[in-house]
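In the lab's daily routine, each protein ends up as an entry in a very long ledger. A line of letters takes care of the sequence, but it says nothing directly about the fold. The fold becomes a row of whole numbers, each drawn from a learned catalogue of backbone shapes. The protein below has been through that process, and both of its lines are reproduced in full:
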Amino acid sequence: MSLRFLGIWPNTPDDGSPTIWLDDETGDLIIQSWKADDETVRQAQQVGSVPGHSTAVPPHETVIRLPGNMLQFIPRPVSEVNGDNSGT
């Protein structure tokens, strides 16, 4: 695994700050952020996702809350960055 640092929460204190890395081999994002509180998890379960899909969070997963100002660090496809919305 080869991780590349992408960004950290702007004006971060010394510890416990949301951070994003990219696994250059797989394209996966590795995200450190705040665990969603119980109310947020309940709301996400009520909204659901795909009809018929379980809304339970399995033991090997968690729900995190990523601050909106961290979206700037998430990589975008080149076509999106260049404004190409042709869908190809």
Notes: The longest strand covers residues 3-8. The two ends are 30 Å apart (CA to CA). The longest helix spans residues 38-47. Helices lie at 38-47, 78-81.
